[in-house]
Structure formats: structure tokens, C-alpha cells
Amino acid sequence: MTDETNGAPMRGPFDTPAQMRTSRALRRRVAFLDRDGTVIVDKNYLKDPADVTLVPHAANAVRAFNYALVPVIIVSNQSGIARGLLTEDDYRAQRARIDDLLEERSAYVDDHYHCPHHPDITGPCECRKPGIGMFEQAIVEHQIDAASSFFIGDKLRDLLPAKAYGARGFLVPSPETSPEDVQGALAEGFELASSLSDAAAKALGLPHEPES
Ligand SMILES: [Mg+2]
Ligand SMILES: [Zn+2]
Q1: Residue 174, domain extent
Q2: Is residue 83 part of a domain?
Q3: Closest ligand relative to 134 C-alpha
């Protein structure tokens, strides 16, 4: 946004240029990870938290971000809630289970966001990916520098929000990924990764040793 009179960046009434630079410098890049098919196995409207299974080696990827001091934020469409297939309580129990399974492997997620809507049932919303509502909320709540953050998932809609910020997106194909999503991701300039830990290595500029 610019000031109409002189094109200078808009600023709050009490922000000096130095304060603006400081608050920008304090913003952090994060890894935005899709949940189903990316961090946990996609079981199509998972309900019972006992059925939560981590994608093989996903914990290694989360840990790589942890070591690099890049906060990890899970961002998930959960239209099963709108469809009445699971409740908010079921979702919260799943979330706790994911945190526990990762913690057993010394890996930590900083926060989780979810969209409980479905446009056909609850009407349009701003949070359902590829909408950016959940990302906008996280950016404010976690002081995120979105442009230098990473958007990672198994569907094109997980990556498209990156375009709003000029950020990098990585498609990690799962059994649920369509060829159209792969082609679409490449056409949009996103990167392909063979696994979540490959995506983490590419994002962080680290060598990737494929897990056996
Ligand atoms: Mg997914
Ligand atoms: Zn929503």
C-alpha cells in the first residue's frame, strides 16, 4: 500500500521508519504444511484419532525445520466438519494425536489452522484453500514474513496461496495427487519434491539424503 500523495509506504501514526524496519526484521519465515496426505496419511475424512498415521519420514522433515528455527504451521481444509462426518472435538483430538506422534520423534509443530467449511454446505468462506484466510490469520498471530515462507502440500490448492505473497511452493505428490495438480504446479512455477523431507531440504538449501 502506498500513500496517495507521495508514494511512500503507508505507516501507522506512531511508526518511525526505523520502527517499521525493525518490526519487519522481526518477522520470521515459516513452513506452511498441508496436513492430510502431507504430514499424515490421507484417510478420507479421518475421524478416530487412533487412526492418525504419520507419512513415513514426515517427522524428519518437521525436525529439519525445527533445527533450522523455521516454525512449522499446519494448515488444513477439513470440510468433513461441514459435512457432519467429524466434529470440532474430533479434529482437536486428531491434532493432539499428531502433536504426540511427532513429539515421540522429537519434532514439533508450532500451530495448526483448519477450515471447517464446505462451499456447497456452509457457503463461501475465505479460509478454505486455495483461499488465503488461514494464512492471513497465521501471519498476524505468528509475526510471519510470508514472502520468505514455504508452502508445501500434495495438492495445487495448498501451494496457490504462495502466489499471493511471491513465496516458494513445493508439491509433494501423494497417492491423492492428480496429474493435473502436478502439471498445474509446474506451470505455476512451483517445485516438485519426492518426499516431505526432500521438500524441507530444498527449502532450507540442505543436501537431501533419501531415506531407505
Ligand atoms: Mg492434502
Ligand atoms: Zn473456511
Answers
A1: 39-204
A2: yes
A3: 2
Which ligand sits nearest to residue 115's alpha carbon? 2
For residue 159, report the distance from its CA to the centre of ligand 1, in Å. Answer: 11
Q: How far is the CA of 178 from the centre of ligand 2 (A)?
A: 23
Asked if 111 is an active-site residue, the reply is: no
> What's 177's domain CATH number?
3.40.50.1000
List, for residues 86-124, the tens digit of each pLDDT value. Answer: 999 999 999 999 999 999 999 999 999 999 999 999 999
Spatial separation of the C-alpha atoms in residues 105 and 51, rounded to whole Å = 18
What is the per-residue pLDDT for 25? 73
> Which residue in the list 34, 90, 154, 181 is annotated as catalytic?
34
Looking at the structure of the chain, the number of domains it has is 1
What's the CA gap between 58 and 2, in Å, rounded?
42
CA distances from 94 to 77, 120, 168 (A): 14, 25, 28
Q: Is 99 a catalytic residue?
A: no
